[in-house]
Amino acid sequence: MELQLILLSADEAALRLEKVRKEMSCHGIDAIVISDNANKYYLTGRVFAGYIYIPAEGQVTYLVRRPVEMKGQGIAYIRKPEQIREHIGPDVPATVGLETDIMSYNMVNRIMTQFPESRLADATAVMRGARAVKTASELESIRLSGVKQDHVYSLIPSLYTEGMTDIELQVEIERASRLEGCLGQFRISGDSMELYMGNLLVGENADTPTPYDFAMGGEGMNPSLPVGCNGTLIKPGDTIMADINGDYTGYMTDMTRTFYIGEIRELAKKAHKVSIDICHRLAKEGTPGTKASSLYDTAMEMAKDAGLENYFMGHRQKAGFIGHGVGIEINELPVIAPRSRDILQPGNVIALEPKFVIPHTGAVGIENTYVVTADGMQPLTHSPEELISLI
Amino acid sequence: MELQLILLSADEAALRLEKVRKEMSCHGIDAIVISDNANKYYLTGRVFAGYIYIPAEGQVTYLVRRPVEMKGQGIAYIRKPEQIREHIGPDVPATVGLETDIMSYNMVNRIMTQFPESRLADATAVMRGARAVKTASELESIRLSGVKQDHVYSLIPSLYTEGMTDIELQVEIERASRLEGCLGQFRISGDSMELYMGNLLVGENADTPTPYDFAMGGEGMNPSLPVGCNGTLIKPGDTIMADINGDYTGYMTDMTRTFYIGEIRELAKKAHKVSIDICHRLAKEGTPGTKASSLYDTAMEMAKDAGLENYFMGHRQKAGFIGHGVGIEINELPVIAPRSRDILQPGNVIALEPKFVIPHTGAVGIENTYVVTADGMQPLTHSPEELISLI
Prior knowledge:
Chain A is built from 8 helices and 21 strands. By secondary structure, chain A is of the alpha/beta class.
């Protein structure tokens, strides 16, 4: 039994390749060697061990180490990167792009032994740029993840029983997610974040700073993974913020909802409403051509106007963004941050997460995933946005 | 509330630092800048965003980006790597070691702007070497993970119900593991492997090649994560191989057991017994000073003598090793492979996994985690090794 290398339709593979080549042209890069799993998945619809060599024109070469037995046009089996050159034809690119922002220093140098006449360029931005605008097929995958994630979130109150700790509830949400088809993997570019299956933040633990570049923190169950649940008993007066993995298709949605039990502080209720208001306002304003930084500014202004600046995007420690692109990975372009130079384009998929941490109560607010259209940002996650009682 | 940076005891932190400095000396490196989360966890007992600067002698500097509010000797808060130099004193190291095998090309170059007079060296091997021999405290953490993992494995038959698919059973094992305290995270160095929480291989799916450098494969639920369960119905005549995350303490054990239902082929039973025999023989022979390659050769010889070479370490696709170091990460030193130059040392922790793939039946064999002692390799995982009926 042989395995087909390219799992995308011929049209879809051609469309994605064209987008990548357009970015290569903009960056003045003559050929790229792609190694990152997320980028290989984008170009072929599967993860394999090896490289993809893409010249500005002509045949793409798939340099495969594993798995065995793959078939398709342009495949060459290699054992190590030092064999790349013998398989890619005689043309010498003046500039070779590698993913230097994520590929190890040693690997970049090993690959460049194959291109002694070429100048090294950074292809990380090429791939990030191409992937920032989703194709119709990618949008369908994201939409489907959203439907499944919505369903799992609707189950959360039924998974809670009195006397549970945060981690006990999270484990039940994990199980429900997995049974719904969640792949579990939470693909992140780079090493600034680590997470297992999502973040459930209960009460004061939401205010514990994390080392990671997430919007919210939490102490974690162990200092080897200091984020999320810390074994807190869920008690009346707490908010319970659920931000659980939405990767059901290889493409993910990112959604947060906030639950509570008992009576919670008015300040928390107010902040939650402001979070919803910010999402609605930004979704309306987020038309193609809008500056990502202006969306951030609007959100910050609304938080200030509500007198909630001190709690916005964290309290003891603050996150520097209120939204981010999402797709194969959780940290794609554009970035909704004060110094972002990104401009919204039709087909961007963006998670907005204007959240608050209210001391002694917990985190409040929502997160939705949206697609940018001529009419603004259309939500791909549809769960009820108000605070939801767990009991 | 401030956070203590160093969570290790003073003695333990000093011991680990001494091991690292001894390796630095062997490699002729005058100072290292550590960035990798696993390495920072090794040196401090916690993960943080930032760097650790370790000169051959004198004060260690902890260059922290996040979390806020940490306290302890030698801490400096920085926003970016270009601020390292201003905090580490005036001495200029002739050679600076960075983790060039795992750190991105761009980050290496950014950090080296801080050391324009210094020569760059690879510190990856320094840290791998230091971490390969566990301290008594590390061994305790691994031992504890083994106890918990043993308990979860004892529950597996009770989690099975007739008509389950592989993924349905895996989800129940995941839940049982998490409730026992499994952290979920499966820390892997480099980008050659991706996995969510473990690998359950049922029947023929065990013979599907994976792109990853695992001993076994499996198709996976989606080509974005092509390993493990693929939705196979568990049926009589199948073997069910469970290789599930054993990270309960930040340090993990790695254990595999094989289950079955109904009548399975004699060939599978025979191969399973050979796997157990290989483990017992290697555990006896694995004294300090033993070549890792000779353990591999012995295993391969035993598989050949049993006439099972064609099924050993995979069938359609074969793995190139039969064991590996384990600790904070799943792929530590030593590597038990034919061309390994590693020599066993007291305190190495090694997972041995001599496994077989029997066509139309599935994977068989066991995996245990051992510590190398003067008397050979002592197991840290103790679950019954024979084939276990799920019903």
